[in-house]
Structure formats: structure tokens, C-alpha cells
Amino acid sequence: MSAELPFLPFSRPTIDEATITAVGEVLRSGWITSGPKVAAFEARMSEYFGGRPVRTFNSGTCTMEIALRIAGIGPGDEVITTPISWVATANVIIEVGATPVFADIDPVTRNIDLDQVEAAITPRTKAIIPVYLSGLPVDMDRLYAIAAKHKLRVVEDAAQAFGSEWKGKRIGAFGDFVSFSFQANKNLTTGEGGALVLNNLEEAKIAEKYRLQGVTRSGVDGIDVDVLGGKYNMSDIMAAIGLGQFDNIEAITAHRRALARRYYEAFGPDFEAQSGAQLPLQAFDSSNYHLFQIILPDHGPGTRADFMNAMKERFNIGTGYHYSPIHLFTLYRERGFKEGMFPVAEKLGYLTVTLPMFYAMTFADVDRAVAAVKAILIK
Ligand SMILES: *Cc1c(COP(=O)(O)O)cnc(C)c1O
């Protein structure tokens, strides 16, 4: 019966007609690479983040790599991050030649545990990369107190947190480097893309160099190259999508929060006791609910695969997993990481499942997803 309902994916981008028209205008304009749309998108984000400089890029990965380079972090330096994130978060540390150090996660927030961060600090520690998983910030007061005490830079991996807040302030409007991703599933998308919020125009100028081959202006009409940069610029086609999405960001965040409320209501107060599963923290004032993730009751190997298959086969509903513990990937095992080092991350990494959550989703879709989860987990 349920299988006859249309497929409900765990995520789907919404691009409105005004945005499609705006993209068409860029395509007809004769200028499709970085230009006026990129400048306008950066200016609007800068205004949104209280006037802090913002620069756009072609991913939310190179943003973090460039932030580390601006901070002068490289070989011999240690950078502390979480084992539960998209692998990009740790890869950028290796990319700049520094050493990744993991700190285990907090089982309630599922974000990096700041006590574990403090315990992992050594004289070689230069920076922390916290991740706001599913859009939930860490304790930002505590994070920046730790950074100040130990003189560490912070590169916030806020890839999932566009529109999230901390005590009434937008994530991005304060702090050190703040990195956002506009990859297809993110709350605000440009197809692929990213943005970095910086501290001052001097850093922004360096970011611009790294964004385009290290090229810098010198002389009247000459150029020079004084650092090794990459090819990381955003195009006006992407920026036009971003500007269109930006017009709806308040509505996007509000609707996702409403969907999250509906999830909690539909699961009801007895769901956790009846199923053995764990719902995410309720955080309507801070999280943008980029993802809605539950932790499954542990039935041994295959727990998550069996659940995901049942959701798909019996109910035609897509789910996802975000994320496998980074330290257990081969690249990281080769660097000495192994099972047992971060027990909370290892447990949650294999039991967390992402339920459908996207802007075009309806309350009826939420009810359908919850009914399916209950049918599978409550015997
Ligand atoms: C999406 C994402 C990234 C990477 O962003 P890209 O734009 O795909 O490079 C990094 N970290 C987290 C937590 C993400 O969700």
C-alpha cells in the first residue's frame, strides 16, 4: 500500500522560477564566470553577517583549506576536529600538510565534545575545526573561551549551519573564520559552492589570491604571483542561484524548524522508550534543522542497512547516513587511527540515520516518514 506512494527522498533542492529566470539572464548576458553576480552575492552575505567580509568559492571544502592557509597552518602543526563529519573537514588539514587530531563527540549534541578538545590540546595545536552537525552549533561561548585561552585559531565548519543561530546571533556574524557550503543538499544551495566569512579586508585580499592561482595586482597593469593558489572561484551562474535562494532563507529556516516540530510531535513522548531509538536534541532557537537524524537501537552489524532497506522497500522512503567515523577510513588508519579511539563516534557513526528533511516537504510527508519508522522499530 505505502509502496505505491511517490518516492520521498531524504533531501531535494528547491529552485524557484524567479531564480531560474535570473540564471537565464546570466546565461544570455555574455558574462558567465565571476562577475557582478558574485560581487552582489558576497555583498548581500556580508550585510547578513553584520558587515564582516565574505568571499565566495566553488566549494565548502576549499573555503576551509584557504582559511587554514591564511592562518599560516602547515607542517608540524596540529588541528583538532571531530571524527563525525563529512570527510572534507579532516582532509583539508592533511591537504595543508598539518596533522589531524580528533576529539570524540558528545552523545547528546553529536557535535565535538569541548572537554575532549581541551584534553587534546598540545603545544603544537594551532587551530580547532568544530562542525555544526545537522545545523546545531556547539557551545560557542565555551569554544571561543578555549580558543582565547590557548591562542588557537578557529575555522568553523558551518557547512550545514547557514541560518543557524547562537543566543540570537547568526552563525557567521561573529567568531573567527566561518565556512559555509552551498552543495546541492545544503539549506542554501548554488549547485556546488561555498563562502568564507573572514575577520578583516586584509584576510579577504589573501583569500582572493588563494582563490585564483595566487595572482596579485602589481604595478599599473601588471600581475604577479607570490603564493601558490588554486582555481576556486564561483561563477555568476552559481551566484545567481545563490541570490535567488538567499531571498528565501528566512522562509527556508522557518519551514525546516516547523517540520522538525512536526517530527517531534508525530513521534510523541513515548517513541524513545518504545523503540529504543534516540531523537535529536530539540533546538528550535539555534538549529536550522539541516538534517533530522535519529540513532537506531543497536541490533549489531547491519542495523542501519536493514533499517534503510526497510524504509526503501516497504515504504518507498529514502534515508541517508551522515557520517561514518572519519578516523576509520583507510587514509586515516594509515596515519595510526584505529577502532576504540573514539567510542562515542564509533557507536553513533554506525547507528545514526538521516530522515527526510527539505524545504518542499509537507507535514503529511513527515507523518508518513514517522509512521514508517514506527512500523519498523516498534514491534
Ligand atoms: C557539505 C559539507 C562539507 C563540504 O562542502 P562541499 O561544498 O561539498 O565541499 C564539509 N563539511 C560538512 C559538515 C558538510 O556538510
UniProtKB/TrEMBL annotation:
Listed name of the protein: DegT/DnrJ/EryC1/StrS aminotransferase family protein
Signal sequence, start to end: none
Molecular function as annotated in GO: pyridoxal phosphate binding; transaminase activity
Family named by the database record: Belongs to the DegT/DnrJ/EryC1 family.
Highest rank taxon of the organism: Bacteria
Pfam families on file: DegT_DnrJ_EryC1
N6-(pyridoxal phosphate)lysine modified-residue sites: 186
Keywords from the UniProt entry: Aminotransferase, Pyridoxal phosphate, Transferase
Biological process terms in GO annotation: polysaccharide biosynthetic process
Entry annotation: catalytic residues: 186
Gene3D superfamilies named in the record: Aspartate Aminotransferase, domain 1, Type I PLP-dependent aspartate aminotransferase-like (Major domain)
